[in-house]
Design a protein that fits this description.
The complex is a heterodimer of chains A (396) and B (53).
Chain A (H helix, E strand, L loop, with lengths): L3 E4 L2 E3 L2 E3 L4 E2 L4 E2 L4 E3 L2 E3 L5 E3 L7 H9 L9 E3 L5 H4 L2 H7 L4 E4 L1 H11 L4 E4 L5 E3 L4 E6 L9 E5 L4 E5 L18 H16 L3 H14 L5 E4 L9 H13 L3 E8 L5 H15 L3 E6 L5 H8 L2 E7 L12 H10 L5 E8 L5 H11 L3 E2 L4 E4 L4 H19 L1
Chain B lengths: L3 E3 L5 E2 L35 E3 L2
Antiparallel strand pairs in B: 1-2, 1-3
Classes of the chains: A alpha/beta (396), B mainly beta (53).
C-alpha cells in the first residue's frame, strides 16, 4: 500500500474503508464506505496531520513506512478528537512516545478523556503558527465544526487547507482527488454529509466561511479527513457549503409518510399529484422502507417538507419518531412544513407532527389536512387541491 | 439579571452562578462577560447566545 503525493513532500497516508456501513453508531448509513485521510509532511520536523480509525492503524503505518521510519515523526497534529481520526493514536504513540501533539485546549481535554495517554500536548489557538522547516502551519480554531475540539490546519507556503471533517465525504475510492472521481458521486456524498451532520451548525458554517475569506489566504487545495481531496476545484465545495448553510432552495418538496391500512398512503399520492400540477416535483418517501439520511439530503434543496401519518394512540406512528427526532436535531435552514393524515376517532397525529415541525425550526406553510377513515373521491380531490395550494405557497 | 442560553448546545449561563472555571464571579451579568468569553460546554462565542425570557 503506497502513500499518495499531494504536493512535494506532502503525502496522503490514510486508509480506505470499503466495508463501513454505519457511522456515528447506527445513524448515518455509509453506502459507499469511507476513507480516513491522514497526511504526512516531510520537512525538518516530520509531521503527521490526523491519524485513522484504530482498525486501520496498520494500513496507515504501512504507507508511512514507505517514506520514513514512523519513529522519526516529530509532530502530530490532531485537528479533531473523534475516534475515526484519533483511534490509531495509542498504537502510533507507542512508536513515537516523544512526539508533540498539537491540538486545541478542548482537543487536549478530549484526548486525555479518550485515551488517558501521558503524552506531550501542545495547545494551540487561532493564529498560532508552527514552523516545520520549509513550511509553516497556521491553526484556525473551529469550535462546533463539528465538535468543540475541532480546528483547521493551513499550510501557508502550499496554500493547502486541512479542515478535517469540513468539506469531507464518506466515499471509498481507489483514487484520492476530485478530478479523478465522478463529480456527481462526490457531491452526492458531500451533500449527504452536510445534511446529516453539519445542518444544525449552519450559522457557524457561514461565520467560518466569512472568517476564512476575510483572512484573504490563497487556498489551492483542500484536504479533508474523509473522501476526495479538492485539488482541481476547491471552490466547488466552498460554494456548495455556502449555499447549503444559507438555506437556498428549489421549488421542490419531500413528502414523508407511513400508513396503517392505506388511507394515509392514498392521501399522500394525491398530494404529490397536486404539487406536480403546479410544477413542484416531490419525492414520496414511505419512511419505514427507506433510508432517512436520504430525506435530509433532499431537504438541502427542497423548500417544503410534508409529513403524513394516521393517528394511533393519539399521536403519529412511532416509525416516524426516529425521523422526527433527527429533524429536531438537524434543524434544516429556511424550510416550510405541513402535516396530513387519516384518522378514525380522536385525531392527534397531525397536531403532534406540526409540533415537531415547528420545534425543528420549520414554518408551517398551511393548515394540517385530516380525513376520516378512507378518503372518497371528493376527499382525494381535497388532498390534490391541498397539494396545489402548498405548491403555490412555496413559489411565492 | 437574566440567564442566557447557548444557541448551539443549550448551555445556560446563570449570572447567579458565574463561570468559575473561567474566573467569572457569581453575580456577573452576561453583558459584563468579557468579549472573548466562550461557552464552557462547546466553545462558541457570546454572539451565539440568546437571552432567556
Amino acid at each position: 500500500m503506497e502513500p499518495v503525493l499531494l504536493k512535494e513532500g506532502i503525502y496522503w497516508v490514510g486508509a480506505i474503508d470499503w466495508d463501513m456501513q454505519y457511522f456515528h453508531g447506527p445513524i448515518y448509513k455509509t453506502h459507499r464506505g469511507t476513507t480516513y485521510n491522514s497526511y504526512l509532511i516531510i520537512d525538518e520536523k516530520i509531521t503527521l496531520v490526523d491519524a485513522v480509525y484504530a482498525p486501520f492503524a496498520g494500513e496507515m503505518l504501512e504507507r508511512i513506512k514507505r517514506l520514513i521510519d514512523p519513529s522519526q515523526i516529530d509532530y502530530i497534529v490532531v485537528n479533531h478528537v473523534e475516534t475515526d481520526h484519533s483511534g490509531a493514536l495509542p498504537e502510533l504513540m507507542k512508536l513515537v512516545p516523544h512526539a508533540q501533539i498539537f491540538c486545541t485546549a478542548r482537543g487536549k481535554a478530549g484526548l486525555q478523556k479518550h485515551y488517558y495517554g501521558d503524552w506531550d500536548y501542545r495547545v494551540v489557538k487561532s493564529g498560532t503558527e508552527l514552523s516545520l522547516g520549509k513550511r509553516t502551519l497556521s491553526f484556525i480554531e473551529a469550535p462546533m465544526l463539528h465538535w468543540p475540539d475541532s480546528m483547521f490546519t493551513y499550510i501557508k507556503e502550499e496554500a493547502l487547507l486541512m479542515p478535517n471533517d469540513a468539506f469531507g465525504q464518506h466515499l471509498a475510492s481507489s483514487f484520492r482527488f476530485d478530478d479523478e472521481v465522478d463529480n456527481d458521486l462526490i457531491m452526492a456524498e458531500a451533500s449527504r454529509y452536510y445534511a446529516n451532520i453539519l445542518y444544525p451548525l449552519s450559522k457557524l458554517v457561514l461565520k467560518k466561511l466569512d472568517e476564512v475569506a476575510a483572512l484573504d489566504i490563497p487556498i489551492s487545495m483542500i484536504a479533508p479527513s474523509h473522501g476526495v481531496i479538492w485539488r482541481e476545484n476547491p471552490g466547488q465545495i466552498i460554494e456548495a457549503y455556502r449555499r447549503w448553510a444559507s438555506g437556498v432552495w428549489q421549488p421542490r418538496a419531500v413528502v414523508v409518510y407511513d400508513t396503517m391500512w392505506g388511507s394515509t398512503a392514498a392521501m399522500a399520492r394525491s398530494i404529490v399529484r397536486g404539487l406536480a400540477a403546479e410544477g413542484v416535483d416531490a419525492k414520496l418517501i414511505k419512511v419505514s422502507i427507506r433510508d432517512t439520511n436520504n430525506i435530509f439530503t433532499e431537504l438541502l434543496d427542497s423548500r417544503l417538507l410534508i409529513v403524513g401519518s394516521p393517528t394511533v394512540n393519539r399521536s403519529y406512528l412511532s416509525v416516524l419518531s426516529p425521523f422526527l427526532d433527527d429533524l429536531t436535531g438537524l434543524k434544516p435552514v429556511n424550510r416550510l412544513g405541513a402535516a396530513f393524515g387519516s384518522y378514525g376517532w380522536s385525531r392527534g397525529a397531525v397536531k403532534a407532527i406540526e409540533g415537531k415541525l415547528e420545534g425543528a425550526g420549520l414554518d408551517l406553510a398551511g393548515e394540517g389536512l385530516e380525513v376520516l377513515w378512507v378518503p372518497d373521491d371528493a376527499e382525494i380531490d381535497r388532498c390534490y387541491e391541498w397539494g396545489r395550494a402548498l405548491a403555490r405557497a412555496i413559489k411565492e | 439579571m437574566e440567564k442566557w442560553e447557548c444557541d448551539v448546545c443549550g448551555y445556560i449561563y446563570d449570572p447567579a452562578k458565574g463561570d468559575s472555571d473561567a474566573g467569572i464571579e457569581p453575580g456577573t451579568s452576561f453583558e459584563d462577560l468579557p468579549d472573548d468569553w466562550v461557552c464552557p460546554e462547546c466553545g462558541v462565542g457570546k454572539e451565539d447566545f440568546s437571552r432567556l425570557d
